[in-house]
Specification:
Keywords: Cell membrane, Membrane, Transmembrane, Transmembrane helix, Transport. By secondary structure, the protein is an all-alpha fold. It contains eleven helices and no strands. Helix 1 crosses helix 11, helix 3 packs antiparallel against helix 8 and helix 10 packs antiparallel against helix 11.
């Protein structure tokens, strides 16, 4: 019979405690480093651009004169763009997730589809821009319109929405569905009244993160040929447009020639962050409402 060496046990316990303390401070440092970088970016952006934000800047047209430039066209373009993205992404993403998770038979074809969807989530955004240019701009002849840009960004975030929606549906307790079937409900009645309401808060969480990525994408819009010129305000889905990320991108490039454009870019970043905050707040409110309801 082998006795426990108390001294050896004590050494191991002390080692684990020291390792725990070291790792705690390592993880704290990693968190603080990200927060510090974020704080520096926000402070620099706000200090550089806040003084340029006024009513004329928000409601004005684009101009070659930095003192007269406005971003209402870019704000409206971003708004119309997000309407297209939200409509197509939520319908197609949730529909595909419901079919793959609750209707499709498990097998090789299902596994192949799942693998491809997961791979598409990691494809660079510029590849989706090339796809949108080929299909929506040239083949369907939409041109550089709101609809072409919205459909391209929808394709970009669609795999993320599908995967997050599938995970949300998979997390619904199986006993709830079995109880619904036991009461005589059909499959669609169970999905509509049990699975979707239960999974909806998690689905909206994934959708919020995906939309946050879409609203800040620039590379696909550059490939589509979205301009940042003096164009009229967009009033529909088939109008030409510019968006805040595009305007920020071009003003950042022009800042090498005219210093004031850097201030305009910083001010536009603040407006974009405010739009993102409002969009996320609305989505979080809807998510919490459904979460308390069900």
């Amino acid at each position: 019979m082998q006795y426990i060496d108390r001294l050896q046990v004590r050494k191991r316990i002390n080692f684990r405690l020291r390792l725990n303390s070291i790792l705690k401070y390592v993880f704290l440092g990693a968190t603080l480093s990200g927060l510090v970088v974020l704080a520096i970016l926000l402070i620099r952006t706000v200090s550089q651009g806040f003084a340029w934000i006024d009513w004329n800047f928000i409601t004005g047209h684009l101009s070659m004169d930095p003192e007269k430039a406005g971003i209402m066209g870019a704000i409206l373009g971003t708004f119309w763009l997000m309407l297209v993205v939200i409509f197509f992404t939520l319908i197609l993403g949730m529909g595909a997730a419901i079919y793959l998770e609750l209707y499709a038979k498990k097998g090789r074809v299902h596994s192949l589809i799942q693998t491809n969807i997961a791979n598409l989530a990691g494809v660079p955004s510029i590849v989706y821009g090339i796809l949108g240019l080929t299909v929506f701009v040239r083949l369907m002849d939409f041109g550089s319109t709101v609809l072409a840009g919205g459909l391209t960004l929808s394709l970009l975030i669609l795999p993320i929405v599908i995967v997050s929606s599938q995970e949300a549906l998979r997390a619904v307790p199986q006993t709830l569905g079995e109880a619904s079937y036991g009461l005589g409900a059909s499959k669609w009645q169970t999905i509509r009244n049990i699975d979707l309401p239960t999974a909806l808060p998690s689905i909206l969480t994934g959708s919020i993160l995906a939309l946050s990525r879409a609203i800040g994408e620039t590379a696909p819009l550059v490939v589509l040929g979205i301009p940042a010129l003096l164009i009229p305000f967009p009033g529909g889905f088939m109008d030409r447009f510019t968006a805040l990320p595009m305007q920020i991108y071009y003003w950042t490039l022009d800042a090498a020639l005219v210093e004031e454009y850097a201030n305009l870019a910083a001010a536009s970043i603040i407006i974009l962050l405010l739009m993102l905050f409002i969009l996320n707040s609305i989505a979080i409110y809807i998510r919490n409402k459904f979460q308390h309801r069900f």
